Amino acid sequence: MKRRDQRSAAALSYRAEEGVPRVLASGRGGEAERILAAARKAGVTIVEDAPLAALLGASARPGDPVPRKCWEAVAEILAFVFRQEEGRVKGERRREN
After folding, report:
1. How many structural domains does the chain have?
2. Residue 3 within a domain
3. Which CATH number covers residue 30?
4. pLDDT value for 51
């Protein structure tokens, strides 16, 4: 019997020269927990969006571009992450001066 409350996770990558974000990994249950653990260990920003993670897992494989139907949600997440990183860099510069 499958558990309905299994967590889903997806790891994304964005490089401007590639034009669109890509799915690095996706999974449910134990695989989702491994993805999240790897992200924490690497210091990667984690944004929770269970419906998006499930949709990415169902519609894209690792290495695939993010499906067009997910672009808006992924763009919002990337904008959030970029703002977080920008704030962190500015904070580090202030401490150096």
Report:
1. 1
2. no
3. 3.40.1690.10
4. 95
| CA quadruple 48, 56, 7, 29: dihedral sign | negative
Domain contains 44: yes
pTM of the model: 0.80
Of 1-5, 38-42, 46-50, minimum mean pLDDT range: 1-5
Cα 85 from Cα 69, distance rounded (Å) = 26
DSSP, residue by residue, 49-77: -HHHHHHHHHH--TTSBPPGGGHHHHHHH
Work out the average pLDDT over 52-71. Answer: 95
Q: Does residue 63 lie within any of the structural domains?
A: yes
- Strand runs (DSSP E) across 1-97, as ranges? 8-13, 22-28
Q: Is 19 exposed, middle or buried (0-12, 13-18, 19+ CB in 10 A)?
A: exposed
